[in-house]
Amino acid sequence: MTILLIEDEPVVARQLEKLVRQLEPQATIDGPLPSVEQVADYLQNNPRPDLIISDIQLSDGVSFDVFGRLEVSCPIIFTTAYDEYAIRAFKLNSLDYLLKPIDPDDMQSALAKFHRWQPDGDNFQQQFRAFLADMTGHSTHKSYKRRFTGHYLRQIVSVPQEQVAYFCRDEVIYLHTLTGQKLITDYVTLDELEELVDPAAFFRANRQYLVHLEAITGYQPHYSGKLLLTLRQPSSLEITISKDKAPAFRKWFEQG
Fold this sequence. Notes:
This protein is α/β, with parallel strands linked by helices.
């Protein structure tokens, strides 16, 4: 049995791979793959896997994009940090989903469901196309969060998107404004925030930073292939974009 893992966060990817290897020691594990582009290349040039375990939000888009372009006839277990997506559709199409952080018992149950799964090929394809159409509709009409709240000087402060510089994870999630304020938010993970914000306005630079387009003045290429972002004053912070995410960032920054 071959299982394809799709996950763009390195730490999460390593944990996911370790967990799946523990639960399915006889399986061949391919990936983890971090981007839509790499997933498309894999599916076009390799035998079909028996099972796909896939994050929804990847470094250069959402996994639905590639599943919509290519014929996928194997079951998929989706993972996500935020359950706004159409949960009903997952259930109707014999698919499963896991909320991050992934509980080992939940993964074990999902894999057990896979082993019980008996596909009707034609029916599966029809249902899966309907599922993707439903997902596309949700993505197209999705409304993104435009204001964020945080704790500042014993007050709850509301900050419009236009005044956000970046979010930073450092034990808790901080909101930094363009004027230099630092607020503690009630969000638990950056993955959760990434599902809420407009992807045209915010970019997940790395595991620690989710940065707003208006805060970026430019970037400097590094010899290693990474990019070093420079932000508007008063911030002197340099945020690093990994080599893998650099192409997606350049495209996003130019389009913005």
